[in-house]
From TrEMBL:
One of its GO terms (biological process) is purine nucleoside catabolic process. The lineage of its organism: Bacteria, Bacillati, Bacillota, Bacilli, Lactobacillales. GO terms for molecular function: purine nucleosidase activity. InterPro entries: Inosine/uridine_hydrolase_dom (IPR001910), IUNH (IPR023186), Ribo_hydro-like (IPR036452). Keywords: Glycosidase, Hydrolase. It comes from Leuconostoc fallax. It comes from the Bacteria. Transmembrane segments: none annotated. This is Inosine/uridine-preferring nucleoside hydrolase domain-containing protein. Residues 4-304 form the Inosine/uridine-preferring nucleoside hydrolase domain. One of its GO terms (cellular component) is cytosol.
């Protein structure tokens, strides 16, 4: 069985990614690292603990990651993030507090240790900024070679960004870390807005979660409905809300959900022409071998159906 680590800035779609990974029989979820983004790092960690408790997965440890990018001295949650994910990151839904605490070991040290323990059996799925992975590689450069595969949610190659015309939110939080990861980490798959915006969930599906008559079904339906309402009210998409983060988890388990374009990529930053945080092919590496790819197409119907079936099982 593959060992999976999630690196989450636990907002609404991160919560879905967590549920998907808890339910997936193919993987053994060995830990969750917490990141900043949709909310502050400590709140993200608490959300992960409480969600695991709700799902009866109290055996999965939660580690605290970096609280901000290494190019800034602190992090403030963007207004727009609070509108989409609520003030507490999970749609302002109150969960029963987990009886557990976060681990003493830092998220970065846990990732380094797991890379050495599991090598190619380790799957990493970051669905927030890439700060923790970059910090782990900077501390121990073997990490970049050791991790079996990394499937990240972030970036936009063939469609506009959601923060700026070029920049997706996770990359926008820490483009320096993202560029470092893109140029160092082996076996990288970018699951960006190119594909995640094609996987939408509606209140038809969350109504079915509610009909399970379980606490998990009720809570997940409430937090997801908050996010679907935000997509509607902010006119991001009136048809439904994007399954960004769970798609990355699904692709890490079954890459046939997507069509990947092999490409050596960079992330631009420190530029003055407005392309801060853009994910783009590396012009100097067009003839070089590739170990990374960008998802450009997705089997929408199959994924959304499989996702819904997974949720109906996990939320029972
Ligand atoms: C990404 O940004 C966060 O708001 C979401 O959780 C997702 O990981 C989408 O751009
Ligand atoms: Ca996220």
């Amino acid at each position: 069985k593959y060992k999976m680590i999630l690196d989450l800035d636990t907002g609404v779609d991160d919560a879905l990614a967590l549920a998907y990974a808890v339910g997936a029989p193919e993987v053994d979820l060995i830990g969750i690292i917490s990141s900043y983004g949709n909310t502050l790092v400590d709140i993200a960690a608490q959300n992960s603990l409480d969600l695991l408790h709700l799902l009866g997965a109290d055996d999965v440890p939660v580690f605290i990651g970096e609280s901000h990018s290494s190019t800034t001295d602190h992090f403030d949650v963007m207004n727009i993030s609070q509108l989409i994910h609520g003030k507490n990151g999970i749609g302002d839904v109150t969960l029963t507090p987990s009886p557990r605490q976060v681990e003493k070991e830092t998220g970065v040290d846990f990732l380094i240790r797991a890379a050495h323990d599991y090598h190619e059996d380790l799957i990493l799925v970051p669905t927030g900024p890439l700060t923790n992975l970059a910090a782990a590689i900077k501390k121990d450069n073997q990490v970049a070679e050791l991790i079996g595969q990394t499937t990240l949610m972030g970036g936009a190659l063939t469609v506009p960004g959601n923060v700026t015309p070029f920049t997706e939110a996770n990359i926008h939080q820490d483009p320096e870390a993202a560029d470092f990861v893109f140029t160092h980490q082996k076996n990288l798959t970018m699951v960006g807005l190119d594909v995640t915006l094609r996987t939408l969930l509606t209140k038809n599906e969350t109504a079915e979660w509610r009909h399970l008559n379980s606490e998990a079904g009720e809570k997940f339906a409430s937090l997801m409905d908050f996010y679907i309402d935000a997509y509607y009210n902010l006119d991001i998409d009136k048809r439904g809300a994007a399954l960004h983060d769970p798609l990355a988890v699904a692709v890490s388990i079954d890459p046939t959900y997507i069509t990947g374009l092999p490409l050596n990529m960079r992330v631009t930053y420190n530029t003055e022409n407005g392309d801060y945080g853009r994910t783009i092919g590396d012009k100097t590496q067009l003839l070089a071998p590739t170990t990374s790819k960008a998802a450009v197409l997705v089997d929408t119907d199959r994924f959304v159906k499989d996702f819904q079936n997974m949720m109906l099982t996990v939320l029972k």
